[in-house]
Amino acid sequence: MKRTDNNWLTFVLSFILLVGLLVSGTAAMSAEPKKGPEVYGQVESRLDAIMKNGYIRVGTTGDYKPFSYLNPTTGEYEGHDIDLAKKLADDLGVKVVFVKTTWPTLMDDLLADKYDIAMGGITRTLERAKKAQLSHPYINFGKSPLIRMADKDKYKSLADIDQPNVKIGVNPGGTNEKFVRANLKNAQIIVFEKNLEIPGKVASGEVDVMITDSIEAKSYAKEDQRLYAPLTDQTFTKSQMGFLMPRGDFVFGNWVNVWMEEMTLKGDLEKITNKWMD
Ligand SMILES: O=C(O)C(=O)C[C@]1(C(=O)O)C=C[C@@H](O)C=C1
């Protein structure tokens, strides 16, 4: 091929390319701008349903002070996480509907869609995270004992507690029971259905020790002079609390986490925490 043929071919190809670019550019400019959902594919979320319905269903046990307590006199839920649930609903612009659950049925009730979120002193665990979505943490704590004031010098370690003559009171289905079964091999373990009654059983001498969370132990010791909460600054475990939500709904989970970060940033979380804890 001659040099002039090559030049001619290059000219024709460049011309075709230029015309192509101009045509597609004009088409792109004249097309209607697409709306978000058409471009990105809006994900259906529980968040939309909550806002459409005008209420959020919050699962809670009502047996764990100072996080979630069903006051028998008023019939109302109260506590740290109850205040958080009310604020969450407020910030969503919806009402809050509390749904009673229990520690042994906490996960099944969530999976059966009895509530949108569970709140009330729920420990973040790797086991729970396999079945559900856990929010960012909002409190650090650990397991520790609640004992009688009279036994103040008797129980100074887990080994002091794990003796055949020591009776341990524990509620079923939560992380307390898991801890007790895994770590106390010699002491007598007595399971009580009603968690709220165990501190009274320690005070009266029916059992010697309640194994629970450091924050709860401190709260009972403050409420009842007969009780004492040792080792709360050297807890047997290290854990964090979070909220439990159905798995796979990124939009809802993300909203809750962003809300928690805003609560922290603006000092609202601290205000609620100071109201319920020392
Ligand atoms: O399972 C959990 O996530 C809890 O933190 C609940 C739990 C428990 O461990 O059993 C914590 C302390 C209360 O005394 C009762 C319930």
Automatic annotation (TrEMBL):
Stretches assigned to the Solute-binding protein family 3/N-terminal domain: 55-278
Claim: Signal is one of the keywords in the record: yes
PANTHER family referenced in this protein's UniProt entry, alphabetically: AMINO-ACID-BINDING PROTEIN YXEM-RELATED, MEMBRANE-BOUND LYTIC MUREIN TRANSGLYCOSYLASE F
Superkingdom in the source lineage: Bacteria
Protein species of origin: Brevibacillus choshinensis
Pfam families, per the entry: SBP_bac_3
Protein's recorded name: Cyclohexadienyl dehydratase
Keyword Signal: yes
The entry's keywords: Signal
InterPro entries xref list: PheC_PBP2 (IPR037298), Solute-binding_3/MltF_N (IPR001638)
SUPFAM superfamilies cross-referenced by the UniProt entry: Periplasmic binding protein-like II
